[in-house]
UniProtKB/TrEMBL annotation:
Signal peptide: none
Keyword vocabulary terms for this entry: Membrane, Transmembrane, Transmembrane helix
Domain HAT C-terminal dimerisation, residue spans: 7-54
A matching Pfam family: Dimer_Tnp_hAT
Keyword Transmembrane appears in the UniProt entry: yes
PANTHER family: GENERAL TRANSCRIPTION FACTOR 2-RELATED ZINC FINGER PROTEIN, ZINC FINGER, MYM DOMAIN CONTAINING 1
Top-level taxon of the source organism: Eukaryota
Name of the molecule in the record: HAT C-terminal dimerisation domain-containing protein
InterPro entries hit by this protein: AtLOH3-like, HATC_C_dom
The keyword GTP-binding is annotated on this UniProt entry: no
Upper classification of the organism: Eukaryota, Viridiplantae, Streptophyta, Embryophyta, Tracheophyta
Chain segments annotated as transmembrane: 12-30
Source organism: Aegilops tauschii subsp. strangulata (Goatgrass)
């Protein structure tokens, strides 16, 4: 269809074909995400908030990337950070 330039005349048909070809990939990705969520979200962790759950799912789904990260470098990075705790100013008057 692209070689004969018919995709220009039949834009909606071409779009439908594109979506039909993409659908199995998108469905598999969503199924993989729900499978990971069922593994990460157990009965004990059923009440976790959405942000924390999202972070856990990213770590689980991308575990091969996280496995390649050197743990020692991460530990050293946080150990070399300056302390950010500061003393609060004393109140000017006591009530």
């Amino acid at each position: 269809m692209v070689q004969t330039d018919r995709h220009i005349h039949f834009r909606l048909v071409y779009r439908l074909i594109e979506l039909a070809l993409i659908l199995p990939v998108a469905t598999a990705t969503i199924e993989r995400a729900f499978s990971a969520m069922s593994i990460v979200k157990t009965e004990l962790r059923n009440k976790m908030n959405d942000e924390w759950m999202n972070h856990r799912l990213v770590c689980y789904i991308e575990r091969d990337v996280f496995a390649s990260v050197d743990d020692i470098k991460i530990i050293q990075y946080y150990q070399q950070m300056r302390k950010r705790k500061g003393l609060l100013p004393r109140p000017l008057h006591d009530n």
